[in-house]
Design goal:
205 residues; mainly alpha; 10 helices
């Protein structure tokens, strides 16, 4: 891989990882509602789950979509419905004070686990857009396998710090969520932004 192509790939990885999308908005909401440390499994699930998906896309899954275009449309529909469900869950999440009390009353309010976050990448429209774009634009024509490994390595390095920024931002926002009404307003706003993040997947082309 040439120096210029490597720089372009790194820039693409950083920009696509740090810009708003379902993962980042959900991590910000989790950071605000649960704190940074409890959200770490969620962050790791996003970072490693996306790289695993990227690897599978690179070794041939994208060919399935080329042969059966309807399968990609079906995936987008399922992804969108699931994101709408998650937006509803976020909008109706209990206030921050209630989450803290949950530690003592046995409630099941908790952030995403590692496996939940990793599995979510398969129904995340932005993750699919990032993955297919990266493979199409930066795979080495003369050595595709090496190109896929390089792309996965770059995203493994740049993705986690980028998404950690969103989680950290959420923890800072939580300092201002000192009442149930403010927390609810924040969660509803996050839910609306999550729904808005579907726009590029459907109308961005």
């Amino acid at each position: 891989m040439s120096y210029q192509l490597a720089l372009a790939l790194i820039a693409f990885g950083i920009v696509s990882s740090i810009t708003p999308g379902p993962n980042n908005l959900m991590l910000m909401a989790s950071g605000a509602n649960f704190g940074f440390r409890p959200t770490i499994p969620h962050m790791l699930g996003v970072a490693l789950g996306f790289v695993f998906m990227l690897f599978l896309v690179g070794i041939g899954l994208v060919k399935v979509f080329e042969l059966f275009p309807a399968s990609f449309t079906a995936l987008k529909v399922i992804s969108s419905l699931y994101l709408l469900y998650l937006a509803w869950k976020i909008a109706n999440a209990a206030p921050l004070k209630t989450h803290r009390e949950d530690e003592h009353d046995g409630s099941n309010a908790k952030p995403f686990t590692f496996l939940q976050a990793a599995a979510f990448q398969w129904v995340n429209p932005k993750a699919w857009t990032m993955g297919t774009t990266a493979i199409a634009a930066y795979t080495l024509k003369d050595n595709p396998s090496l190109g896929v490994l390089i792309i996965c390595t770059v995203f493994l390095i740049v993705n986690l710090p980028c998404i950690a920024i969103w989680t950290f931002a959420g923890t800072k926002i939580s300092q201002f969520l000192n009442s149930p009404s403010k927390t609810r307003a924040f969660n509803i706003t996050a839910a609306i932004l999550l729904i808005a993040s579907l726009y590029p997947a459907w109308f961005g082309h």
